[in-house]
């Protein structure tokens, strides 16, 4: 398995062969995974501003890109999936069924995204948004957690159907149940951190080691500014992942979702 993470520089960081590149404006990680024998590849959370860089790298490596998947509807950047589909023959877009976004493939719990001999398994991890998913490699050695679980943190829950109770349940039931040594690759990091493990986050994450009540209190008092691109509409994004449902429900569904989560 070849795993490449798009950062602003190239550096192998582990025996798993993770190569990191970075989109600096939104501090977003994009991941490219490929079967080194068949050259089939998938890309996770591609960003519009780095499409030329990403496609150039894919061409240089001789890969055949089959699926571009978003872990959720992003409020801080525009996905390049729509434009990428125009430039890569046969490429399909994928996103959660519950995202409210347009895509070729709508994903649900337990679905597999194959590439060569390998595949990614979908785990639904709502809370940051209703349509958040975590993608886990077949051997459970790596999990691409989107904004659900960050390194020593987690995604915010104050917009886009966000619900702290849902997020707490998602992380504890879907991610923290993976093996301790499973590597965690998030969609963002703002401190230059690149990878963690399930065991580390279960033990040291300052938010998610708390009780659910304490976690909800923390998340309800972050008082963060809204992302710069949360209201942006773009024809490129509409091809594959225009988050019209997410944008329509920025506030109206938040309380209802939390009520449902509290009953679980």
Automatic annotation (TrEMBL):
Q: Which CDD domains match?
A: POD-like_MBL-fold
Q: Where is the Metallo-beta-lactamase domain?
A: 27-188
State the superkingdom. Eukaryota
Read off the SMART domains from this record. Lactamase_B
GO terms assigned for molecular function: metal ion binding; sulfur dioxygenase activity
Where in or outside the cell?
Mitochondrion
Q: Which GO terms describe its biological process?
A: glutathione metabolic process; hydrogen sulfide metabolic process
Protein name according to UniProt? Persulfide dioxygenase ETHE1, mitochondrial
